[in-house]
Amino acid sequence: MKNLGYIAGEITKGKNLSENLLKYGNGMCSMYNGLGFIKMSMNYYTVLDIARDLQNDKDLFNMINRLNELVERFVENDECDDYEAFNELNSFREQIIEIMEVITAYVDRLRIYEHALNRIEYRFRDDEFDKEYYNTYLTNDLMHYILSDKDNVVIHSKIAEVVGQLPMRLSRNKFYEYLRDAFSLYHGAQKGTIDDFAYSLKTTATIHKPEGFDEIMPEMHELVGLLENADYTSLDKDEYKKLHDALQIGAEKVTDLADYFVLLAQMVNDLYTILLTGGYTVGEVEETNLAFSIIEQIVMAHNGKDELSEDILEDFTQFEGKQERILSVISQCDYAVDMVIDEYKEEAEKCNLLTVYEALKKVSLLQSGSDFVELEKDKSSEEVPQDLYADEVCESLIDDLKTFFESASVPVRRAVMATLLSQLPVFFNNTDEIQNYINVSLMQCTDEAEAAATVEVLKLIINS
After folding, report:
1. pTM of the model
2. 3-state DSSP call for residue 172?
3. What pLDDT digit, counting tens, does each position of 376-410 carry?
């Protein structure tokens, strides 16, 4: 068979569609099927290791058991009734996404409280503050760091990084002005794009609570409650240490949980990929058969029916470079999937191949690298609303922030404002404005402990 890149090119020219649509569809399904099997076998081995260490975490252990049941049914025993299989997978995937949203909400909160605690840490340390460096040289070092790269994307990333760590001394009105300017850039954007931007800012600002936030992970809820209710303006050393220790425990726990649930999501995405493409592959592939054998062994080991052979690690060496080669081929010719659905839908339907291309469209999302991507988007999210929509979404966000700021302590409020500013599109027009913003932020900070913490963090950024 001619290579997929060539066939994709022929499809874009509308040549010999009945033959090329079949070859391309089967070829892409074979590629994705092999990729799904290889990735799943490797991740599954890691998941089994995790399961052995999580006997006391009943909720997570039950999730892994559920995943094992799905793998056993749909891969090993080939019980792939489409409607039932995809319904079960969708339900399990949505459950993982909901839990991950809660984990992410805790991560966002810990990031804000870490920022606040960091700014008061030097109250309880004896380090000597280098005022001369702070007042004379820091701005120059930051400007050199920002402008040392010629790539605008990198420069903007560095500006955001620095803005997020500078002392926050903007008035709230000026801060809201920056928000309004940012949303004005979304005039003419799709509704979903505007909503996603607002959602990301709300989660960062900790003013959004996902469903299950108060019920899932009660220990984390209690720990974050301790950080949330602290008075950061008048902490003594013992109270600071208590909060700092709680933060460290929480950060370690959510990092581990996030890693586990990313693995589970990847496993489900790969299983989904295998089911969607399994009926349209061509020929047998040695690596796919090996991956299937590994999965079969892991299912038996998880069920306690057999010990996992030590040779399995040797088997994994046969996959070296395979994922990269498959992804290279896919990335060079996956563009034809959208073209078929958008321009040659009738031809695909006549050839009884529309189901294949709809499956490939979904698989391309599952394997896009965005593990929690939406598979079915609301059509209304693609609409382009009037400019007023973005402005109204912004004002709603500002109202929520005003309410939050009324009860938040000054360090927490400043942490939220600084972190949000770092997420906005760059709002400086030239290098003079950048330098002026840095100078004003540094000079208006009269809290020596905060200034010392700022120097330490910014030096780490510069030297990294």
Report:
1. 0.88
2. helix
3. 877 788 899 999 999 999 999 999 999 999 999 99
